[in-house]
Amino acid sequence: MEFSDRQKLIIEIVKAHEPITGDNIAAKLNLTKPTLRNDLSLLTMTGVLDARPKVGYIYSGQTIEPLLFEKLYTKKVDDIMIPAVFIKQDTSLKNAITDLFMYDVGSLYVVNKDKKLVGILSRKDLLRSVLANNEDDIPVAVVMSRMPNVITITPEETILTAGNTLMQHQVDSLPVVEKGTNDKIIGKITKTRIMNHFIEEGIKVKAQ
To answer: Among the four 62, 73, 150, 172, which has the fewest Cβ within 10 Å?
Structure first.
């Protein structure tokens, strides 16, 4: 894999000053930490850098073979996305909890009568609502995270982009929407699905 000039410079900075925090790396480049987020994520995911909580980044020197990198990260979301579970806005919390465990998913996608995405209901949302309310017949529309505050992704984006988006926003799944829309769901991508993809490809490589 060929790194960008900025990524190469980040590697050299870490080599010279490890351990070093993201803020200090950004300062040395006269940039903000958010500007470097994708670069640092890529270098960490490929094993070149190792991110240690409360310590900073260190140089590990490990690299992923180009062909394996292609299989792991540059595949499209469309290649590994899975079906989403939908519920209606007037579904009760009690029924939503039943659906959540019946389908063994972390999030339910709330749609309107036209099957357009209007919100997302996560396990955290359900737990919060159950603890705050004694009534289990409240409709999910009252407690769900509403559009346009739901982060989505399109099927032609890469798995690397999906993983980075999941980390940035600290969510477990992303609705995959048809390109050119933000509410026509065609699937979902989750942290678990991405991890399974990595394991599957690793097993294939090991078997060769």
So the answer is: 62
